Amino acid sequence: MKRTERVGAIVRILSQNPNQTFSLKYFCDLFHAAKSTVSEDISIAKKLLSKMELGAIETTAGAKGGVKFVPTVSKKREDELLDYLCEKLSDGSRIMRGGFLYTSDLMFNPKIVNGVAEIFAAKFIDRGADYVVTIETKGIPIAFMTAHMLNLPLVVVRRESKVSEGSTVSINYFSGSSERIQKMSLAKRAVEAGKKAIVIDDFMRAGGSIKGLWEILEEFDVEVVGTGVVIASVEPKKKKINDYYPLLLLGNVDEDAKIIQIFR
Amino acid sequence: MKRTERVGAIVRILSQNPNQTFSLKYFCDLFHAAKSTVSEDISIAKKLLSKMELGAIETTAGAKGGVKFVPTVSKKREDELLDYLCEKLSDGSRIMRGGFLYTSDLMFNPKIVNGVAEIFAAKFIDRGADYVVTIETKGIPIAFMTAHMLNLPLVVVRRESKVSEGSTVSINYFSGSSERIQKMSLAKRAVEAGKKAIVIDDFMRAGGSIKGLWEILEEFDVEVVGTGVVIASVEPKKKKINDYYPLLLLGNVDEDAKIIQIFR
């Protein structure tokens, strides 16, 4: 194989498997090439991705060392994505009865999900997490893509315990959106004690369900090392949790005038 | 930029945006290079991905033409993935009370989700679909990744209508797993009449919920052009639907002996 082909293959394999370390030997065997040759290939791949702002390649030395792709988001791409989301979200026809916003089309749109997940992954990559955790339903695609980019398993907390989940641990929490006590449950075999988790959700008002996720994880002795939400409501000012990373803020929603305040 | 760098960048950009057509001009502008140069770059990228079985690049001529990445799965990778899944699924500790199988760890595992979604995407890419549709919850990651690889929006049918979904259409269906009538609902603005959909789900017993998905889509005048399920139960032999594509078959589950029959 020629250098051009090897570099192309390295870019494809690494970027398809983000945050997963491949040994130099893996590529030497794949290409039937010497270590020095592959090292130089990787160095070229690294420079080109960095120059084009298409992601980062990190190399680590030593016996356990190797090379991996790390998701990055340039300031320009982040700005473009969040500006686009703000524009889409400020469309007055999204206002449903009761002042709720319709966002499913955005939260289930692969381009938006990928971009948002890249931002969360870049933000939380150094937290040493073992899981990405969300509560069903609308945040699942974004939480899943974040998990994919961090090379971690996704854990989905359910609203009802299902027969196929086996024994579960359940807690009650107060949901501001529905103004009532709700239940969430997690299968006993879903997580291991002593591990760390990043919590991701699509929307947060007072923070009741995120606080519920923190509490249910505490029941399992799993530490929360980061919390990201796509949209956080400005009101109520007093939240049930204090440490979270919102991408967008939702201000006033005027149901009659069909005006939505959304900003970064 | 050198050829090696251009080819690497083309591989990254195309494979990050599967089934999305980029014009030749897009890359000419990006690299400040002539059309003949970029054409040759693309031809090299295409050959290397094909040779390494890392995906396919398709080029189309004409004013609307361009170049796109198409997900493919080699027989070898498909075999490896499905064999691995069979092995994991036949672990007797997965049997929950009532004979249900615990599969969340697999359905939420990014490596497995990616592989399964690639198989579905390759299978259904030529159906001319406009949406990938699933019902919450466990099939969402696989349906989402399939949607991503086909460059289509994901549509999630809910079990309960939520306030943030606005007006919805609901139907009742008989769920064999829970042995009762259940409800599913879809927001009126989620899909457009006259469009086509691929239905994806994680598990199918008699096919009640898949049939429900077909029926609710019919209410919206959306045609189902393909149905994929990860695991289909052998029993009952008589299914409520006839045209579906299962990856694995679940035979007898012996709760006492802890033996699971799973095969391809």
Q: Can you walk me through this structure?
A:
Two copies of one chain form a homodimer. Chain A is of the alpha/beta class and 264 residues long. Chain A has two domains: 3-70, Winged helix-like DNA-binding domain superfamily/Winged helix DNA-binding domain (Arc Repressor Mutant, subunit A), CATH 1.10.10; 75-263, Rossmann fold, CATH 3.40.50. Helices cover 36% and strands 27% of the residues of chain A. Chain A contains eight helices and ten strands. Chain A has helices at 3-16, 24-31, 35-51, 75-89, 104-107, 110-124, 140-150, 208-219; strands spanning 56-60, 66-70, 131-135, 154-157, 168-175, 180-187, 196-204, 223-233, 245-254, 259-263. In chain A, the strands form three sheets. Chain A has a six-stranded mixed sheet, with helices on both faces. In chain A, strands 1-2 form a two-stranded antiparallel sheet. Chain A has a two-stranded antiparallel sheet with strand order 5-6. In chain A, a hairpin with a 4-residue loop joins strand 9 (245-254) and strand 10. In chain A, helix 2 crosses helix 3 (35-51), helix 4 (75-89) packs across helix 6 and helix 6 (110-124) packs across helix 7 (140-150). Chain A is globular and about 65 Å long. In chain A, 44% of the residues are buried.
